[in-house]
């Protein structure tokens, strides 16, 4: 058989492929999966620049985000062609994204009206304090019965409110009915399906449930919530299910391919980890750390500082499933901080080596409350703290304390989840970039006192988006029936230290967290001198 014949027959063997755009806080990826085996065939990744224009502010450039998506698509298609895989086999594209990050653009010019305000951003702290002060009894859970969320800097509505109050271009565009609001998924889908030339302005239920404008019971935008934040409903995207054809790609090598899956990144990881049953849970270690537990088709409200969020709705006529979520703002971001801000490591693998050298933090505790504390405290006034330092402490101990911090924060949200449900998780399914750190995985098992289970294919977030896209009506190349789901190979980390020692360290951590509280309580004065408050 000659070479071209062999290549073309190889190409036919694969069957349908499904792609996923995974637009995260620190990078964008494009990944292509085999719809029958869930095998990852090729991918490309591009880092995203974050800018910090002022203390506590975090922004990203919407055009850079979009450009990175195109670049990842083009590169991945080139790689597939080199592998003799025909890109015309890509039958659908799913989108998964960093949630809550807020964008406003002009629908006539297609231009962003400001940078994207990232979920971690704290500029809205005074807005949040003002909103909480006007609630009966100064209650941050005043809207929780509708949204499942506390009033916090984390969610989109307060960021959108800030943009309308402080950015002249946004204010004007809203008044002249040219403004469009969206989270990252909406911006990407609108641009990829044509932008100002007929782009589709939509979001899915999982992303909508993170805005504070969405009623998780009626499953739609809530007029009263919009009135509360004084946001005109006309600027909001249309809310759709997580698995349906939203529109077709309008440019690039994949022109004409349907975009048919959309899930916020943490929901996508829950789907990618196949947590379809009530009680199944996963923890994702990315920029932040997010533990989600499927609670089925009725929302469960937490009494221990967890969020109630929409897990997924896999089809227009399918029921929505809900999750309890413990959100930690800073996990992988602490690695970036040690690298970029302190310069004590050059690469993230070096962190593991440094920490392994000492095997203990030697009484040093690091609470990375850079963006205040999220679950279970919801304390925006907290700030980062490193304590228990002695003359003996060196950078290796700090590296170890940073890894421990990720594990302790996970333990806090796991405890809250166990208290809320009364059923204790017997093991923890994990995924995300940081799970390649074996020391971290072992530490996590030791601190939780339960086994930690890591799938050998770590890209579960992208896999979840691909599954939603491939299963959509009108695409139907990926079956989500339990008997058709592929068996996942994984690795298990068993706890190796005695529980008493683990409890002692955890109690110390809790003491450190208390020290980090109530630090930044008033609005900083912008007089150019950050030292004076």
UniProtKB/TrEMBL annotation:
Protein's UniProt keywords contain Nucleus: no
Every Carbohydrate kinase FGGY C-terminal domain range: 282-472
Entry keywords, A to Z: ATP-binding, Cytoplasm, Glycerol metabolism, Kinase, Membrane, Mitochondrion, Mitochondrion outer membrane, Nucleotide-binding, Transferase
Domain of life (superkingdom): Eukaryota
GO molecular function annotations of the record: ATP binding; glycerol kinase activity
Any matching Pfam family: FGGY_N
Pathway terms, separated by semicolons: Polyol metabolism; glycerol degradation via glycerol kinase pathway; sn-glycerol 3-phosphate from glycerol: step 1/1
Enzyme Commission number, as recorded: 2.7.1.30
A GO BP annotation: triglyceride metabolic process
Cellular component aspect of the GO annotation: mitochondrial outer membrane
Chief localisation class: cytoplasm
Domain Carbohydrate kinase FGGY N-terminal: 18-272
CDD domains hit by this protein: ASKHA_NBD_FGGY_GK1-3-like (cd07792)
Subcellular location: Cytoplasm; Mitochondrion outer membrane
Top EC group: transferase
Entries under InterPro entries matching the protein: ATPase_NBD, Carb_kinase_FGGY, Carb_kinase_FGGY_CS, FGGY_C, FGGY_N, GK1-3_metazoan-type, Glycerol_kin
Family: Belongs to the FGGY kinase family.
Entry protein name: glycerol kinase
Lineage, top ranks: Eukaryota, Metazoa, Chordata, Craniata, Vertebrata
């Amino acid at each position: 058989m000659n070479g071209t014949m062999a290549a073309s027959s190889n190409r036919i063997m694969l069957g349908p492929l499904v792609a996923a755009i995974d637009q995260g806080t620190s990078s964008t990826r494009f990944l292509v999966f085999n719809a029958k085996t869930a095998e990852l065939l090729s991918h490309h990744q591009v880092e995203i620049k974050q800018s910090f224009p002022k203390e506590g502010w975090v922004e990203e450039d919407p055009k850079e985000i979009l450009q990175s998506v195109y670049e990842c698509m083009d590169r991945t298609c080139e790689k597939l062609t080199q592998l003799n895989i025909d890109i015309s086999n890509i039958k659908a594209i799913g989108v998964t994204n960093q949630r809550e990050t807020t964008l406003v653009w002009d629908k006539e010019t297609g231009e962003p009206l400001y940078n994207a305000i990232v979920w971690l951003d704290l500029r809205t702290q005074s807005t949040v304090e003002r909103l909480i002060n006007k609630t009966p009894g100064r209650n941050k859970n005043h809207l929780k019965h509708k949204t499942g969320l506390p009033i916090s800097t984390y969610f989109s509505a307060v960021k959108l409110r800030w943009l309308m109050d402080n950015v002249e271009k946004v204010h004007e565009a809203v008044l002249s009915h040219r403004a469009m609001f969206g989270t990252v998924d909406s911006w990407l889908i609108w641009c990829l399906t044509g932008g100002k030339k007929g782009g589709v302005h939509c979001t899915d239920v999982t992303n909508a449930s993170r805005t504070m404008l969405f009623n998780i019971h009626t499953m739609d935008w809530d007029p009263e919530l919009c009135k509360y934040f004084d946001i005109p409903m006309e600027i909001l995207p249309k809310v759709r299910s997580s698995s349906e054809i939203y529109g077709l790609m309008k440019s690039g090598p994949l022109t004409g391919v349907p975009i048919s899956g959309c899930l916020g990144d943490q929901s996508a990881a829950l789907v990618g980890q196949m947590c379809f049953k009530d009680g199944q849970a996963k923890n994702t270690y990315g920029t932040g750390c997010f533990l989600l537990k499927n609670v089925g088709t009725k929302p469960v409200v937490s009494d221990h500082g967890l969020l109630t969020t929409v897990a997924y709705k896999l089809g227009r006529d399918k029921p929505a499933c809900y999750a309890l979520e413990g959100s930690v703002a800073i996990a992988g971001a602490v690695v970036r901080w040690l690298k970029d801000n302190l310069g004590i490591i050059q690469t993230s693998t070096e962190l593991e080596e440094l920490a392994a050298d000492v095997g203990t933090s030697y009484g040093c505790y690091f609470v990375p409350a850079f963006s205040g504390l999220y679950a279970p405290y919801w304390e925006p006034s907290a700030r980062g703290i490193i304590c228990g330092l002695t003359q003996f402490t060196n950078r290796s101990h700090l590296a170890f304390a940073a890894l421990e911090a990720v594990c302790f924060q996970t333990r806090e949200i796991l405890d809250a989840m166990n208290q809320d449900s009364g059923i204790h998780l017997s093991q923890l399914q994990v995924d995300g970039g940081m799970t390649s750190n074996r020391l971290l995985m072992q530490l996590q098992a030791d601190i939780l006192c339960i086994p930690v289970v890591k799938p050998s294919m770590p890209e579960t977030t992208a896999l979840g988006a691909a599954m939603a896209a491939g299963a959509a009506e009108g695409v139907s190349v990926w079956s989500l029936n339990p008997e058709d789901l592929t068996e996942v190979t994984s690795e298990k980390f068993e706890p190796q230290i005695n529980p008493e020692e683990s409890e002692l360290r955890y109690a110390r951590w809790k003491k450190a967290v208390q020290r980090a509280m109530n630090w930044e309580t008033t609005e900083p004065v912008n007089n150019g001198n950050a030292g004076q408050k």
